[in-house]
């Protein structure tokens, strides 16, 4: 999946199919770090906890509640709602 295709699913609870056939359920969102865009995955519940940790500036929780993901590894996204 390229970024243009991904943007309509950004931060939306989905079922994602990855290369190799694995399916994951949760949220993928993007963050910018300087000139770099990075994408992360969390379950929907972890994403809610991540947003609370952002407000509290809890760096340990932020690192624990996200997993880096490459958009090229995502082959399909289906919104859950």
Which labels suit this protein?
single chain, 81 residues, alpha+beta, SH3 type barrels, five-stranded antiparallel sheet, globular
Number of strands: 5
Average pLDDT: 96
How would you describe the shape?
A: globular
What Rg do the Cα atoms give?
Answer: 13 Å
Integer tally of domains:
1
Low-confidence stretches: none
The amount of beta strand, in percent, is 35-45%
- Helix content range: 25-40%
Structural class, from secondary structure content? alpha+beta
> What is the count of helical runs?
3
CATH domain topology: SH3 type barrels
CATH class: Mainly Beta
**Separation, N- and C-terminal Cα atoms:** 21 Å
| Main beta sheet | 5 strands, antiparallel
Q: What is the spatial order of strands in the main beta sheet? A: 4-3-2-1-5
Series of H and E elements: HEEEHHEE
CATH architecture term: Roll
């Amino acid at each position: 999946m390229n970024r243009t295709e991904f943007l309509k699913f950004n931060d939306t609870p989905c079922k994602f199919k990855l290369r190799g056939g694995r399916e994951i359920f949760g949220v993928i969102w993007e963050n910018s770090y300087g000139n770099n865009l990075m994408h992360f995955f969390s379950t929907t519940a972890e994403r809610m906890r991540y947003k609370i940790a952002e407000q509290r500036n809890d760096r340990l929780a932020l690192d624990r509640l996200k997993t880096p993901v490459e958009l090229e590894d995502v082959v399909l996204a289906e919104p859950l709602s």
